Amino acid sequence: MQIFVNGLISGAAIALLAVAFQTVYLPTRVFFLGMAGIYSLAPFIALALFSFLHSWTFASIGAVTVCTLLSLALEWGNHARLSQRRASDGVQLVASLGIYIVLVQIIVMIWGNDVKTLPTGPDAVTQLGRFFITKAQWIITIVAIVLLGTFSAFLMRSNLGLRLRALADNPIQFALFGFNVTSHRLLAFALSGFFAAASSLVTANDIGFDPYTGLHAVLLAVVAVMIGGQSSFLGPVLGALLLGVIRAQVVWFSSARWQEAATFLLLAIFLMLRPQGLLQGKIRLEATQ
Amino acid sequence: MDYLLHLIVYLGIYLIVALSLNLVVGYCGLLTLAHAGYYAIGAYAYAVISLTLGWDFIPAACAGAFLAAVLSLAVSLPSWRLRGDFFVLVSLAVQTLIASILYNWSSTAAPLGTWANLTNGPLGVTGIPGPTFFGVSVASPLSMAIFTVAISGVCALILWRLKISPWGRLLLVMRDDELAARGIGKNTRLAKVQAFAVSSAIVAIAGSLYAAHIHYLDPSSASLDDSILMLSMVIVGGMGNFRGPVVGACVLVLLPEILRFLELPNSQAASLRLLIYGVLLVLFMHIRPQGIAGNYRMK
After folding, report:
1. What is the tens place of the pLDDT at every residue in A153-168?
2. A98/B285 touch (CB, cutoff 8 Å), yes or no
3. Which end of chain A, N or C, is less packed with Cβ atoms under 10 Å?
4. What is the residue extent of each domain of chain B?
């Protein structure tokens, strides 16, 4: 049962990133691999800011702000311009891949290749009934619940959230109604950068980080999106929790080294047998492209 | 002189890689990131077979090519239903699976090449013999360069003949309008399977050449960075024709060599090289999506 709880908590961190991915993918159809670079960058920025500010709270806020601005800059300087030229999905993907490579290599050149940790002090363990939960796991859980809950309320209750869903549903009709597609796309990218940085920081606080963690984490998030459902903002949360639990079980019953194989085997099974994901009615996958 | 010959060997290897990837990306319009996985399968097959069974280069490389062709079903079958981003994701999943298997199919208790220890895991395979051709050893740098040029010439010739054949034209029709191709009675699913099989088999031969040249192999040869480099060659050079990947391979193999003259530390030079690839990918997508010498824009 402890393994199940650990899986749920690591799934919560994946869920934050899955929502970050989906927030851009649904309204813009951009496969935002550049987000992996942002994910890699966030803890390095926090570490650098900590040496000036000497406060993890302010360093984290600073890192999230920088990553949100960077995500906006990537939309403004790259994806929006490609969209204006009616670039294909493939072109957007390759450009995003290029951005990821550039960001990661800049990180490597400045901070090096080593695995690092955020030195936030000893990780206290609390007992909750039969379960043991570390301080880092509490942070993941609380941040995930607060952010995902707030985002869910924003999507369902606010006008802006409604417009974001409308843009995801039909961008052409959204533009025909006179709404500003450009500013809503910027909002989507800002939210994505925010969620990616938050996910990265809580994960880095738990297990450490290195410049290459981003792409792997984003791939897990995309797998969660595929499992949860591609046309829902919050379906990936379910996918991420399921993925977290399964990955934890693989470690328990087999070995950590087979985690990736199990993850992508699960993806292959879903793509073959239920390509629409868990939270979506049956459609042909081609119809979504 | 040895440096120049080494460069020729690398150029020959990456020429095969770029041309074979172009068959799938340029002619079929399917962006794949699993190519380095099949390259590594060929390399490992050659390494294990030549070390444990003592086979010559040609039969060992052919065995690797056959294995890669069979395993290419892992990418080609999903391509029946998936295009675009989701197909890229599946190819990435296959790449990760292959890398994971190469890392993990090992045991310190068993000798290399047995069922328990097929790849030697992260320790890699050492002492891989250089190529022997009908019993004659290709040992010197000059003979290796000539051998690589000959093999890459044969691979290029095969791909050229395929390109100008009716089958090659079917791939182009399928890329531009798959529904139309199916409408005139063409079996596009079979064509995709064949294209991936041929592409994977040929890149496996390039992998065999690499293993025979370097004499050492570890699972990093199946890394995503390598797949990105391969894709960059096709994208920067240009897709959908024969000259594009040739130009791409030449540019991306020779460009990093310029960095040697900057006398940077090795780690910085490696990062700078990858940084240049990334910048090139972004720039080409903005300025010239069809690449330097290509005639097909990615969908």
Report:
1. 998 999 999 999 999 8
2. yes
3. N
4. 2-221
